[in-house]
Amino acid sequence: MNRKELIEQIRSKKSFLCVGLDTDLKKIPQHLHTCEDPIFEFNKAIIDATAPYCVSYKPNLAFYEAFGVKGMISFEKTIHYLKTNYPKHFIIADAKRGDIGNTSAMYARTFFDEYDIDALTVAPYMGEDSVVPFLNYKDKWVILLALTSNKGSHDFQMTTDTNGERLFEKVLRTSQQWGNEDNMMYVVGATQGEMFKDIRKVAPNHFLLVPGVGAQGGSLQEVCRYGMTEDCGLLVNSSRGIIYASSGEDFAEVAAHKAAELQKEMGKELEKIL
Fold first, then answer.
1. What is the pTM for the complete model shown?
2. What distance in Å separates the CA atoms of residue 90 and residue 94, rounded to the nearest whole number?
3. If 0-12 CB within 10 Å is exposed, 13-18 middle and 19+ buried, where does residue 6 land?
């Protein structure tokens, strides 16, 4: 999916919601444990329920790799189900890959050739040659970690050099020499608030993937106030606040309700720019 197509989906659905598929066997409803593949059955039900209200899905690889081959089969089935039944939804593999160039090239082949997903989260710590292999695929996206919302983010991301430039700002500025607005996004945590103003000074038009709205306490309105562009420029992710809103047999119905609530809020924010 290219940038134009993504923007068209956001405008037509009046939503920039990304639903995170962080599927934990310990948290899914008990009645699903009798299924042959409970992870996939949970994902399928969540997808069917929330698809009208979102433009993107983001399975987190850790929640599938934890179960070995069975977990990766569930991941593959989830991707196939999305591509077959909801081909206009933007699929992000949240894998945070990043290694020396030839290893990154194999990671890129895995997710872009084998699974044919739209985007992959990538860690920038090893620099240009570890990121560029992911950028060699047409209409595929690298989503580079920039400013995250976890407590430890300040250990490195907020440190400054002798010129007063913070590390996350250097990541934003330097990485724009490798990719562009059509193939690179950045992860910026929703709990960063007014920091979005600083992000937009360095990356005014790139799309931002924003986790942390909902269960982690981030404010959608604050994210939009400081981070939204004339093309929206945001994919706001919600995982636990949607998929685990209910632990009963009504889990999909409740997830749909939570997604619809967020979509309605997003529609109001989009009205300000459309």
1. 0.96
2. 13
3. buried
Residue 91, beta-bridge partner list = 57
- Contact indicator for 148, 189 with CB cutoff of 8 Å: yes
Q: And the tokens for 145? A: 């970690």
Residue 47 is classified by DSSP as: H
SS in 3 state form for 204-226?
Answer: CCCCEEECCECCCCECHHHHHHH
Of the candidates 93, 84, 104, which has an alpha carbon nearest to the alpha carbon of residue 58? 93
Q: Which helix (H) or strand (E) holds 21?
A: strand 17-21
Tell me how far the alpha carbon of residue 46 is from its chain's centroid: 16
Task: Give the pLDDT confidence of 160-203 residue by residue, as tens digits.
Answer: 998 899 999 999 999 999 999 999 999 999 887 788 999 999 99
Chain centre to alpha carbon of residue 31: 29
CA 177, CA 231: separation in Å to the nearest integer?
22
Whether 217 shows a pLDDT value over 80: the answer reads: no
Average pLDDT, the chain: 95
φ and ψ at residue 157, rounded to 5 degrees: -65, -30
Give the bridge partners for 210, in sequence order.
236
In whole angstroms, what is the distance from residue 229 CA to residue 55 CA? 17
- Identity at 44, one-letter amino acid code: K
Active site residues: 96
